[in-house]
Structure formats: C-alpha cells, structure tokens
Amino acid sequence: MSATGLDVFDKTLQTTSIWLGEIEREIGPDRRLAWKVLGTVLHKLRDRLSVDLAAHLGSQLPLLVRGVYYDQYQPARQPVDCDMIDAFMAEVAEWLADSRAVDPKAATAAVFALLSRHIDAGQIAKVLHSLPKPLRSFWDDAEAATAAA
Length: 149
Known about the structure:
single chain; mainly alpha; Globin-like; globular
C-alpha cells in the first residue's frame, strides 16, 4: 500500500531520504542540515552551468530534490563566472551561515560525491567538462575520497 497514495511521491520521498542519509554520513547526523547542504550546493553548481546543461542535470534529480534545485533559479543570469574554488566555497559558506557549523568543503564534497553515485555517468561527465579546472579537480577528489572510504 502506498503511504501517500501516489507511487511517484513515495519514490521521491524514499530516494530523497536515502540521499540525505548519505550526506549525513559525511557531515554528521542532522537531517535539516543535510537538506540545506544539498540545496545550497545544488544551487551553487546549477548557477555555474549553461541553461541547457542545468536542465539536463535537473531532469535526473528525484522530483523532490528537483524542486529545491530549481528554487530561485534565474536562467537569464546563468552561467555565473567562478573560476576559483575559494569563491565557490565562500558562497556555499555564506548560504550555510545560518545553520550549525559545517565545513563548506566537506558539504560540497558530500554533494558532489552523491551526484557521482546517483546521476548518469555521461551527465556527470558533461557537467564536469563545463566546470573550471579547480572545481572539476575538487569534484574528482571528492569522488575518489568517497570511493576509497
């Protein structure tokens, strides 16, 4: 029997819960913080992608996560230039400033690794190819660290 009455809602709730649990394993047990980390890093990533690439990535996210991904999206302003990893991390830190202290690099690494595990490898390759080298290298390192753990 469906908990919500619609299988699509049950599936997105289940998948989102799994994703949040994976983030919590990296940043500590706090479901609200995991949700904020996921949304924040997705926003910062989305804003650096072309509109087409952002849409293709968004289409592969669970329905509930897709909602937070597109929240406050302004396609006419994208992509935002950001060649420096420190600038990206500063933006993540700023958006997380009103929550429990979490290292923006750990938060970003957790989400990047999560995306690598759950999104089609071809789509991830396209996203990585579009990112500046410092951010692409950070993603690769996050993915490798999670795979080694």
